[in-house]
Amino acid sequence: KDVDTQKYYDVLGVSKEATQDEIRKAYRKKALKEHPDKGGDPDKFKDISVAYECLSDPKKRDLYDKYGAEGVEEGGPGGPGGFGDIFDLFGGGGRRGHSEKRRVQPTVHKMKCTLEDIYNGKKTKIKVTRDKIVKKEGEEATPSACEGCHGQGMKTTMTQIRPGMYTQRTGPCEDCGGQGVKAGSTKKDTKIIEVTIDKGSPHGDKYVFHGEGDEFPGAETGDVVVVVDLQEHKTFKRRGADLLFEKKITLAEALTGVDFTFKHLDGKKVRVTSPKGAVIKPKSLMTLKEMGLPFHKNSYEFGHMFILFSVEFPETLKDDQVTQLTKILKAPKKSKDAFDTEAQLEKYNEDHRNTHVEGGTQGADSEEEDGHPGMGGGHRMECANQ
């Protein structure tokens, strides 16, 4: 007969290619929605728990994918397996001693920060939406242990599959949803948190606000974690505590010196000059000491700023300019070597190319093997030999 290996995936609403993380998230969402104490369907809650118990265990999942639910049951009695308890979903991982209080997974908030924020520091407020326990009238401040599983969160049941043969299944307690405590309801709540981003903070830096996250019965309240998400800057690039920016200058500036201003990250304008008589070559990298970012956790010291210069050359020169430059720069005299013919350089033009052996371009597939960067050709012939 045909074996159903799809049902458990459909129950959780995930695909067969779902990762363990996706399966855990799907289970948590559906289990909280269908919990009987929250008005959910007990049968659906049971199906969800059974499906998760199987798919969260790689070995059981492999058996299920091959032989269906019956194959999993006949695979032999199992202990808790890979399920653990519902608090695995909250960052615990693995079973813990009953005396150790479990913690809800943190709420992560990415905060976009500009380089200006990192240079000057930033204070801002964020609104966090979290789950908060709603206390019922007369309910204890600390939830008491679930009577169904005696606070373990897991319950073992025996099922007869044929006369004289039983199978044992350990899964989350249906009474408490695997929590180990009497379930309490939760509601959405918002909280305003003030965040101070330190000067010089790196990308990915974390600011933890303990106990400001989600609440869940029987677990330690989760944290809120704010993560610095550094945005690209239109002028500067960050390299640790150093800054880099590119500056175009004319040939005249390269030869006679630069004198320009730029707006720094604190809003101040900085005048930049080069030493008298210094020549700036193309792709020269020069330094403005202590003009970079404040050191993280030591904001009274600063990194450096590096300027990468590119030199724009004029397209043409007039005869009198050539004469003057020849005198100033002591340009080499004309060649006195004998020659057979004379050729004059012209500006490169795409239409001048003859990438086909018979002349012209005649399509990209006909280009020569020995192409030159910027002229097309080359490298396509490799595909024919692979």
Structure characteristics:
386 residues; HSP40/DNAj peptide-binding domain; 4-stranded mixed sheet; 3-stranded mixed sheet; 7 helices; metal-binding; HSP_DnaJ_Cys-rich_dom_sf; Hsp70 protein binding; repeat; J_dom_sf
Description:
There is one protein chain. The protein has 386 residues and is of the alpha+beta class. The protein has a domain at 237-312: HSP40/DNAj peptide-binding domain (Sandwich). 19% of the residues lie in helices and 27% in strands. The protein contains seven helices and 17 strands. The protein has helices at 7-12, 20-34, 42-55, 58-73, 115-120, 251-256, 319-329; strands at 102-103, 107-113, 122-133, 154-162, 165-172, 186-197, 206-209, 219-220, 224-230, 237-239, 242-250, 259-263, 269-273, 285-288, 294-295, 298-302, 305-312. The chain has a four-stranded mixed sheet. A three-stranded mixed sheet has the order 2-9-7. A hairpin with a 5-residue loop joins strand 12 (259-263) and strand 13. Helix 2 (20-34) packs antiparallel against helix 3. The longest helix is centred in the N-terminal third of the chain and has 16 residues, at 58-73. The two termini are 47 Å apart. The model is unreliable at 76-99 and 365-386 (pLDDT under 50).
